[in-house]
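Folding Query — how this chain folds
Tokens — whole-number codes for backbone shape
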Amino acid sequence: MLYQSTRNKNLTADSVDAVLQGLAPDGGLYIADPGNCRPDWKQWLLLEPVQMSAAILNALLPDYADLGQLTEESYRGKFEAADLTPLVRVEDRYVLELFHGPTCAFKDVALSVLPRLVTAGRAQKQKTGEVVILTATSGDTGKAALEGFHDVDGTGILVFYPYQGTSPLQELQMTTQRGRNVKVCAVRGNFDDVQTAVKKIFARASEMELHGQTLNSANSINIGRLAPQIMYYFKAYADLVKQGRIAVGEPVQFVVPTGNFGDILAGYFAKLLGLPVAKLICASNSNRILTDFIRTGVYDTRREFYKTTSPSMDILVSSNLERLLWLLSRDEEKVAGWMQQLSQSGVYRIDEDLRRKMQDSFACGYADDEVAVRSIGEVFRATGYLMDPHTAVAWTVSKELVPDAGEQPVVVLSTASPFKFPAACLTALGEEPSGDEFAQLDRLQALSGKKAPKALAGLRTETVRFRDVIEPDEMEGYVERFLKERSCSHA
């Protein structure tokens, strides 16, 4: 399969090089039409999750050798749930729990695989020199990437996150990370400031002093991060078939809490691969830029930015939307023009026919903190099921758009453990959060009758290793110093 830049059809790479490069040389994202694979997707439904993942990766990343073994090694012993991503019935709909991995967030599904794709790709292409992973995070990607890449030979990893822009436990997960090849730094500003600066660094990589190193990304701008996420859509569908809720071929709706548009785009890839998806419902928090875009076709970042209780969705520049625009338009010149308008003026408008085409597959809605917190409390009191604020946003939107899920199944993607956000959950359960995050964690366990994941409870005994806080315009120099440190450590 040949991948190309979303902005220039002449910039191409095979699937291994697309993963190793992360971004295309012109700043575009590597893309190929999943529909061209024409797989026998119904056979995938018969597979166990790890084998299902390998089959999907083989379809999308066919230039890799032995993805079966690679996938098996990626997941072995890492997830608390035997089937990786359990599907749980809650009231008249289903919750797809994606948080049973080592960092208690959905990113684990993909970032367990990406480090092995990078190392296997380097070996296959006989690459020398270290791969340095440079990542911006709004909360979960950073820790999942650190967990995946720490102490992996031939790699280094540097994670930037918005200062005071994550939950305290999300921050602790990153700043206490162990590993000889890792570094974490806070940046004053919001996630968009951090992500924009990282993209500029990638664009300037050829002008920077690299010491035989290659920069790459663990964000979903990397196709190797996006592709493994497709599995859990097929897995959820297979679970519904096994439970007798649907027959093969009947459609399902998925509701996805969405910030950078990667998670929901994986669902669109699943649809293009053949999965009977009725609608992908994009659920936004108060930063409702994606909801507004799907409704109007205008993407306008010139708006107030809100810090919410669902910080992983506090994003105004959704990088993966660029891939969707290419898949809908098949016009890289238009995509490049829209991205240029976004960079220069902060706004662009797509064609009316393209907007209607988008709405054929996507619906949308949003929920602010107050409404999402109310949903957490209502669902817990009615069913005993506890959800985190991101999941609550999606749940709220699902109830608004599909009030009766009796006929066509509705699957709500749950992207993080509620114990990553104890203050918000305690508030939802009628408690006033007090004490530090661990006192809140203990109180939430007592109140809910559920145990916090070991990965979170164990943070109270970890030592903070990283305390740097810088301005966005200092990030490039920070990266160059990290690269020099890495080169000296190998000298």
User: Anything to note?
Assistant: The chain has a mean pLDDT of 95. The longest strand covers residues 155-162.
